[in-house]
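Objective 1b of the project was to move from sequence-level analysis to a structural picture of ligand recognition. The entry below was assembled by the postdoctoral researcher (A.K.) and checked by the PI before modelling. It contains the amino acid sequence of the target and the SMILES of the bound compound, zinc ion.
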Amino acid sequence: MSRLVSAKDMLNKALAGHYGVAQININNLEWTKAVLTTSQELKAPVILGVSEGAGKYMTGFKTVANMVEGMMESLDITVPVALHLDHGTYNGSVACINAGFSSIMFDGSSLPFEENLAKTTALVNACDVLGLSLEAEVGSIGGEEDGVIGMGECADPEECRKIASLGVTMLAAGIGNIHGVYPENWPGLRFDVLEKIRAATGDVPLVLHGGTGIPDEQVKKAITMGVSKVNVNTECQLVFAAATRQYIEEGKDLKGKGFDPRKVLAPGYEAIKEKVKEKFEVFGCVGKA
Ligand SMILES: [Zn+2]
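Corresponding predicted holo structure:
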């Protein structure tokens, strides 16, 4: 019996309660443990995001699902946790369904719209039968993810309406957001577009990708306008790398048993926990589990 849950309930509650649920992407055991323990400590529901690249890095989706399930059991994690494929291809989506993920993002945004619509429809049906949540994407999101470069255009509200009407659990739609680090001259989120997408999609929870570098006030405003899930990835990578760099630069690995991998990785682990806590507070999901 899986301990993982679909993201559907947590997102519908977030939409009704005007707060955001965090999707934190994981890369390894330390990342996963940091996110799970912080979520439990702060009584926050959480979505663990796994890109196809991260899944491959961890040797496969089955390994990831088994690690998360095992860790939830050994750490006695009782807050709602969804294990979610991030920016999946069609084949990747099918592989994650088979591997025991509880939530899927099918990113057909680079396909011709009719093909995105057809493949999303097939996955809506498969996920429905299995009780999994499904995120769809319309209009590519700027920046770079797993080698896919988006152009950063805003999504077309009419295309959003068509995809939302298929019965997807949540919808990612570009509103000027970018993956990775934002350029200095970034003009900010397009709230006018968000308003049109909200009006076109009814009560489908919306997803904000590329959370790193969007000013907190803009994220909070987007949440009040119907964004119920905010994805965080790059920011955890940056603090993990900085904390690890500091440990090495201070020569701590050269003192005593400082070379022990559990010691080398500890500052990065703590830095992720701190960043996740900060994000939960901004999104308003503390105590919502
Ligand atoms: Zn994304």
